[in-house]
Amino acid sequence: MKTLIIGIGGMTNGGKSTLSRALQEQLPNCCIIAQDAFFKDDSVVPVDSHGFKQYDMLSALHMDRMMEEVEAWRRNPQAFMSSRYGATQLLPHVVNQQAFVLIIEGFLIFNYRPLNELMSRRYFLQIPYDTCKERRSSRVYTPPDPPGYFDGHVWPMYLKNRQEMEEMATDLVLLDGLNDREELLSTVLQQVTTDIEDLRQR
């Protein structure tokens, strides 16, 4: 059984989820594990001196549970897909010829070394400050962002996390989140498809 893990990261509201879903639609045997699904309960997320909840940190996430999900996929991608999507069981000889793809999506996926080291390709979507702030303000979060949260916590933490990511992640492909969605998809899809074909030839 041949497997490929792709990381799609980026800043808040940069287009990570949109690109991940579009890529999944184009690839057979493809799953997404999203980091946002592993946030800890709001009651245990610490508050800084300004009263801002510290969500933009690895400590606000159940990274152990996320790794368990990833390891479950790695052990048996077909069974993982079946449990999550109700996928049709493939015959053993067909499975051996297939390439299974996992997309790991999230804003801090490249900052967590055990996760980062599993990826064959790493893409990071970035957008300018003004666009990011505008998009963030147009979305509804639970709990909602308090006044000043973007400039007081979200953006400073992005800059801090970005520096740490660049020190840790290698072969990081930066993508302009302002580019046309189809153009972004085409860029990533072409590279991933090439990787899949290379896997099948081995």
Describe the structure.
This protein is of the alpha/beta class and 202 residues long. Helix content is 46%, strand content 16%. It has eight helices and five strands. It has a five-stranded parallel beta sheet, sandwiched between helices. Helix 1 packs across helix 8 and helix 2 crosses helix 3 (77-85). The relative contact order is 0.24. Residues 91-95 have low confidence and may be disordered.
Helix content: 40-55%
Order of helices and strands: EHEHHHEHEHHEH
Poorly predicted tracts of residues = 91-95
**Mean pLDDT, as a whole number?**
92
Shape: globular
Residues in β-strands, percent = 15-25%
In short:
The chain is an alpha/beta fold.
Considering the chains and any ligands shown, give keywords for the structure.
single chain; globular; 46% helix; alpha/beta; 202 residues
How do the helices and strands line up, and which of them pair or pack?
Layout (H helix, E strand, L loop, with lengths): L1 E9 L5 H11 L3 E5 L28 H13 L1 H9 L6 H4 L3 E8 L6 H4 L4 E6 L2 H10 L10 H20 L3 E5 L4 H21 L1
Parallel strand pairs: 1-3, 1-4, 2-3, 4-5
